[in-house]
Amino acid sequence: MKQILLDTNAYAAFKRGDQDAIEIIRFAETIGLSTIVLGELLSGFSAGQRETKNRSELAAFLESSRVVIIPVDDKTAEYYAHIYLSLRRKGKPIPTNDLWIAAAALQHGLTVFTYDNHFFDIDGILVGNTLGSLLP
Q1: Taking the model in full, what pTM does it have?
Q2: Residue 128: enclosing H or E segment and its boundaries?
Q3: Tell me, what's the pLDDT at 136?
Q4: What is the average pLDDT value for the chain, to the nearest integer?
Q5: Distance of CA 52 to the CA centre of its chain
Q6: 104 with 83: CB under 8 angstroms?
Q7: CATH of the domain at 63
Q8: Which of 84, 113, 112, 82 is nearest to 96 (CA)?
Q9: Using CA atoms, how far apart are residues 129 and 112, in angstroms rounded to an integer?
Q10: How far is the C-alpha of 116 from the C-alpha of 128, rounded, in Å?
Q11: Whole-number Å distance between alpha carbons of 76 and 97
């Protein structure tokens, strides 16, 4: 299976026990987690009532040898700028954090695993949310 980059909603679906999400995570060779998604998860945990449990489960997930933290750097910013301009010209803006996630995916050649349809508006990005859509 392809290498994937998890969106926040995909991680949440996995933790809720969504069977599609579980299968995708199970079959992925490499699971990228952007620092942007990490920030979204941690802020969500902080605002919730199960912060300690959620942080513990995330820490266990991150310990897997298949999970890689994908940082944001100056090259990611270049991809961000390109995606932003392209979507602006199309009149299809998307949330800022999703621009960063998409930029990281393009930079590292990863397929975005997400349930947000606006990722499909981004030229050149691979997106999926079912096992069939993520298989080579």
Answers
A1: 0.92
A2: strand 127-128
A3: 63
A4: 94
A5: 22
A6: no
A7: 3.40.50.1010
A8: 84
A9: 8
A10: 10
A11: 12
Handedness of CA 91, 97, 100, 105 (dihedral sign): negative
* pLDDT at site 135: 66
- In the block, tokens 């996630």 appear at 101
The span from the first CA to the last CA of the chain, in angstroms, equals 6
Q: Residue 55's closest CA among 66, 67, 44? A: 44
Element (H, E) at 62: helix 51-62
- Give me the half-sphere count of Cα atoms (radius 13 Å) on the Cβ side of residue 102: 28
Quick one: tokens of 112?
A: 């975005």
Domain extent at residue 90: 4-134
Contact 111, 126 (CB under 8 A): yes
Number of domains in the chain: 1
The per-residue pLDDT for range 15-47, each reduced to its tens digit, is 999 999 999 999 999 999 999 999 999 999 999
